[in-house]
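Example record

One chain of 226 residues, shown exactly as stored in the release files.
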Amino acid sequence: MIKKIVKFDFMSVCLVLSLGWFWSTVVMADEGGSEPYKGQYEELDFELGTADPDKIEVLEFFWYGCGHCYEFEKPLSVWLQNKPADVEFISIPAVFADDHPWALLAKAYYVAEALGRLDEFHLIIFQAIHNKNQHDLLKEESAIKDFFVTHGVSQKDLANAYRSFHVFTQVPYAKEMTDRYNINSVPSLFVNGRYRLTGEGGHEQMLKVLDFLIEKEREHINLPRD
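Predicted structure tokens for this chain:
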């Protein structure tokens, strides 16, 4: 991605990336079989591994400035309310470089987490950008800090969160994972380091494919059903 920031329409970045679903390190799943979701997911050429072998890991990569990610948030939140106990769901804000605009909002995500208020702030950051047109949050850290203060975070707590070990380590982690999974579009979902959903058919369909792949992976690793 770009190293030097130039002026461009932040709101169109997600759409541009959404058109680039091709990933050279994956192959289409079951190209000749009777696959019920053929073309709606891809099997990776090699497994990327997961943190907990006793869980089925689902990774979501997103960006707060992405309209598709915002639209996906509502059906995803409903799905999470009924998430199987053997599934570990992890959201990761995509980061392409330390000086990339997306890094600012990735830091905001982990600041909210450090404050212990991620569940509260996750949706309202999306809403501020997409419903209230607070586009300064996409490119100005001062606007992000003002946003937290406006929503009841003290200057002291905010400063401590920004300087916290959690934020210091998690933003580079998000960058590393963005590189490792070769992210070129958001939202992107991965199942157990083995499958990538293509997003074909819309968000509701994407969640049906997710359920299918979770069951497929459950059978593969012989995990008991809930």
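Notes: Confidence is low (pLDDT under 50) at residues 1-13, 15-32.
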